[in-house]
């Protein structure tokens, strides 16, 4: 992946009755704190890079937490065309026996320094969000597993540094994707927050 969205724009069409906040976190603070606690690990992982894998179903299954199938994800039912689209985005693909696909991305660095961000080293990864989940995983680029205690501590740091944005109908939130991490808290329905990504 060579180009990442620089801005994320969120719009609240339906505010949740409870929960559903959008936490955002200054990326450089996460890097600073991880370097304080795990300097050798951060440098090793930045040098080796991360490898992300994500499994996508063969068909859409709305009853599954795994979500939409690869035909929906790639907008085609032709495997060769799906591979072409995945490759154009920087993903490798591995077709699975049950009809699904595993996408592979990497190596990608753990941190990045972007122009006009005061030379700060940003925590620019989804290690915590994808590590050892039902349909995804992240490892070192050579396949070495990332220690669970490091992922757990990073998750705690993200929580400690997060700022919670509580939605009201009509709110618009502009985020600098190169400087901020963001997420979503669980909520009671209904909740409808629309997103747009900009280069």
Automatic annotation (TrEMBL):
<dbReference type="Pfam" id="PF02668">
    <property type="entry name" value="TauD"/>
</dbReference>
<dbReference type="GO" id="GO:0016491">
    <property type="term" value="F:oxidoreductase activity"/>
</dbReference>
<dbReference type="InterPro" id="IPR003819">
    <property type="entry name" value="TauD/TfdA-like"/>
</dbReference>
<dbReference type="InterPro" id="IPR050411">
    <property type="entry name" value="AlphaKG_dependent_hydroxylases"/>
</dbReference>
<feature type="domain" description="TauD/TfdA-like">
    <location>
        <begin position="4"/>
        <end position="191"/>
    </location>
</feature>
<dbReference type="InterPro" id="IPR042098">
    <property type="entry name" value="TauD-like_sf"/>
</dbReference>
<protein>
    <recommendedName>
        <fullName>TauD/TfdA-like domain-containing protein</fullName>
    </recommendedName>
</protein>
<keyword id="KW-0560">Oxidoreductase</keyword>
């Amino acid at each position: 992946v060579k180009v990442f969205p620089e801005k994320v724009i969120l719009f609240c069409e339906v505010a949740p009755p409870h929960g559903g906040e959008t936490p955002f976190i200054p990326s450089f603070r996460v890097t600073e704190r991880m370097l304080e606690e795990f300097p050798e690990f951060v440098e090793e992982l930045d040098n080796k890079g991360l490898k992300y894998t994500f499994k996508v179903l063969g068909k859409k299954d709305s009853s599954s937490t795994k979500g939409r199938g690869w035909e929906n994800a790639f907008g085609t039912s032709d495997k060769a065309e799906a591979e072409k689209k995945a490759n154009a985005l920087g993903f490798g693909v591995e077709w699975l026996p049950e009809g699904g696909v595993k996408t592979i991305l990497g190596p990608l660095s753990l941190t990045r320094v972007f122009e006009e961000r005061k030379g700060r080293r940003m925590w620019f990864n989804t290690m915590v969000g994808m590590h050892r989940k039902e349909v995804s995983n992240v490892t070192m680029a050579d396949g070495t597993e990332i220690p669970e205690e490091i992922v757990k501590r990073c998750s705690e740091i993200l929580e400690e540094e997060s700022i919670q944005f509580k939605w009201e109908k009509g709110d618009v939130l502009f985020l600098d994707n190169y400087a901020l991490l963001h997420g979503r808290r669980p909520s009671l329905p209904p909740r409808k927050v629309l997103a747009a990504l900009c280069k």
